[in-house]
Predict the structure.
Amino acid sequence: MEPLKFLSSEEIQAMHEATLRVLHEVGVIWTHQPSLKILMDAGCTMNGNRVCFPPNLVMDCIAKANKRPVIRGRNGQVNELGGGNLYFHNLGGARDVFDARTGTRHAATNEDACNAIRLLDALPNCHTVTPFFTPPDVANEMMALHMYRHALSNTVKPVQGPGIQFGHEVRYAVEMAAVVGTPAHELTLSLSPVSPLTIHDVAAEAIMEMAKYGVIHANLPCPTGGATSPMTITGSIVQQSAETLAPLVLAQIIHPGCGVVYCGRFASLEPRTGLLWAGVELGLASAATVQLGHFYGFSVNVYGFSTNAHTLDAQNAFERGLNAAIPALAGADELSGIGEMEAGVMGSFAQMVLDNELASSVLRLRAGLSADAEHLAVEIIGNVMNGTRNFLGQKHTMKYLKAGEIALTKLAERNSWDTWEEKFERKQMADHATDEAERILREHVVPPLEPQQEQELDRIFAAAEKEFEKRQ
């Protein structure tokens, strides 16, 4: 179906021009001398401690980027971004686990982190896996590599590489990916510029290293409307775009043609609590990000399954349903957030299972409708009216039932009250999801890596730890 547009072509053009003005007239705080020399040699200028990007340089680098990168899993599964398909992946970096069985939460453990990846490996509508939980007993500087190392053992699907902070992390991530057969140009890594419009020295070094190895850049600007970016959604998206394109320029100067995924992680400030807000505005912002990213020709990854809710309640359902459906209909290439709760602070195994089902409905929604002759079914209507007056026995009915005309849910209630009460003991959708998550974790076995692969991953991680200790 045609993408849903919340902004006109003229408005998107205005946002593009505003982005170029921010990059050229306002600039980005940038003090890392090696990367500054590269930017100055390419035509950038300085305004105090801010680097200013000429519009023609920005557009030239956008033109050079590989906008349709490929991400591959160790089972051979390939996600080709930008080709019209919608892919889903999970939240990354949650601190806490919500236990849907008891209604309590706890800090994530290493076992939780590994189990989350195993569960996601089993869910068919989670197309790419991102390291989910952050165990508290791992140093912050080693967290990304720790999460990535264990993700590789617990899924055969494509793994979105970790959100890194330092340049030296890149080499170790590239080496780990190679152990499972993923070349650098099919590995995604990301870092987050600091809003507003700041690239710290360690981030600049990491951008240079990512470009050196040719990995896919899926950088994650995280402006907060009303706090670290304008209160207006379109103003924040302009700033977000500038924070996305500034690292891209450096990367394309160093390695023309390296892969890029245009990402957005905007959220609004909840003025009554000071926390991030995952209301419908997030879905609108994601849709606008998709439109602007597609204007440049990029594949676009935005929030999808987002909520502030602390439990599997009605708020949870309607917030994440809106925030997934809106950008999906706008044409998003990837939606993030399977399993997310509490605006990204917490995650849940039952929520992952629920989101897998929600993803099925979103995919059906995005498939739209057809009005060709066979779907309009005039001849079928005539045949039935001349015969049985019942469509149940028609081959046409079975054909389109099998073809997915109706999304056949697995967890949603579709029984009568009596059956629901007597057979299912009034279980609700969240109860079924909890049962299903527990079943998968009992039964699902991920094809293991070869022993020598596990040993090599351990060796690489130990080398990273040794380098970290030297830097202390």
Q: What stands out?
A: Residues 373-402 form one domain. The chain has 17 helices and 19 strands. The longest strand covers residues 334-338. Residues 101 and 431 are 8 Å apart (CA to CA).
